[in-house]
Amino acid sequence: MSALPPPLPRDRDDVPGRLNAQLQEDTLVAAMSEMVDRYSRNFPQHRASAGAHTHPTPKAKLGGDVVLLTGATGALGSTLLAQLVSNTDVSRVFVLNRRSPTGVPLVRRQMDAMAEAGFEASKLVRSPKVVLLETDLPDDRLGLSDEVYEEIRTSVTHIFHNAYLVNFNVPLSGFEPNVRTLRHLIDLALASPHPTPPRLLFVSTGDVWSKKPDLDGPVPEVLTPAKYATRGGYGQSKWVCEHVMANAAKTTPLRPIIVRVGQISGGRNGAWNAHEWFPAMIRSSTYLGCLPILEQDIRWIPVDTVSQAMIEMRDSPFTVHQLEHPRPVHWNAVMHPIARTLHLPLVPYAEWLGRLERSGRSLKTQARSKHSNEHGESDEQSENLNESEEETKRKNPAWTLVAFFRGIRPHRSQTPWRTAVGQTVFGMEHALSQAPCLREERLARLGGEDAVKWLEFWRRVGVLDWGVRASL
Ligand SMILES: NC(=O)c1ccc[n+]([C@@H]2O[C@H](COP(=O)([O-])OP(=O)(O)OC[C@H]3O[C@@H](n4cnc5c(N)ncnc54)[C@H](OP(=O)(O)O)[C@@H]3O)[C@@H](O)[C@H]2O)c1
């Protein structure tokens, strides 16, 4: 019997598939470019007020920079607020937060966020430097009253635009309010009466490189062609924002600062949002009874360093900056201490993933039969499975991200310029030249101490369950 012919090389065997993929990419690029064009129309002219060149700047008048910060209730935003307030070169911080959907008062929410991140919340939030505001950012004039808008317009020297919907399942159109907010901030900056508009720093993401260009090395700190940013609405929308800012810089005196951030890890007290992929992986591992081995380097950067670096970059002469840990470590550097602390064995990634895949099914079955037994119902009768879904999310959160975990590459590739979760390795010349906090003597490599702090934080906030194990 003759052997089967060898498979055709991938790029020759599926012409319709490739044409279809190209068509999809072209459609996405067209939508992204159309959005850039729409939000790049009619930038206002910047007009310094008469005598602005001779009048003292707000910095001189107030004894420091006046910063507008958006989105201070999240992980990075609350750290930025704490560090800006403590910075003696900053005299005032206007904070724009979106409204709470549940009506929790603004000050309470801000204090809770900062306390969770390990800061002296009350002292910082009540500092005379801080002006806390709650508003609808995508509305005209950022939803602010004329009086407040005027106060900000005439005094602000730096804008840190951090607020953003962080959701990887939303298409580009769902991020349009975020793009609109960015445009309102550009308009605000250009309406400044100062000789030069305030610097506008935008927190962007490595997802603008979601498709790796054919480069044998880290990706450079330049604006990316649209085709490299087409994977997912989140990265597409950040690409749109970057390009709207770049267009403003071509025709006005605005000098934007784009800071693309890689994976952010927990900060000074280990606080790391328990719903992100890595915390979910660890939380589920206590349930699955094992931790995964990955032959990969990690370049995660603690949130305090991200915040400090941004503050140090606020007068940068460059436009694009890329920020991740400049000194990577092997996965084992954090995973071995986690395994020791949790008393869990390390297993090949494929085995961990197999257990995760089986666990989702088994958890649902367990919850279904528990519910049936407790209520004397047959499986068919027990329709209320909301409880089981909640339980699945709590004990085994990685199950809800199983598609993401299927995409992880456990082995080192020949070109090590992509991390396990598909992020590209950043070139960082601009970032390193502007942010002394990234230097070797100031920023330690990630290691066991960090990993144990993350575990302690997840345990403290009640999401790391060390007792319950599945029988898989
Ligand atoms: N975490 C990372 O690894 C990472 C990596 C690259 C870039 N980034 C960027 O870093 C920034 C902060 O991220 P984070 O990790 O600190 O996220 P986070 O904890 O979810 O905080 C996001 C902040 O933005 C606000 N926000 C969310 N959706 C909004 C919307 N639709 N309109 C206005 N405000 C909204 C949140 O307000 P509520 O508290 O009201 O929800 C919160 O203040 C974002 O721009 C994100 O894209 C993060």
TrEMBL record:
Residues 379-390 have a biased composition (Acidic residues). Gene3D superfamilies: NAD(P)-binding Rossmann-like Domain (3.40.50.720). The keyword Manganese does not apply. It comes from the Eukaryota. Residues 363-394 are annotated as: Disordered. Residues 69-310 form the Thioester reductase (TE) domain. Keywords: Phosphopantetheine, Phosphoprotein. InterPro entries: Adenylate-forming_Reductase (IPR051414), FAR_NAD-bd (IPR013120), NAD(P)-bd_dom_sf (IPR036291). This is Male sterility protein-domain-containing protein. It comes from Cristinia sonorae.
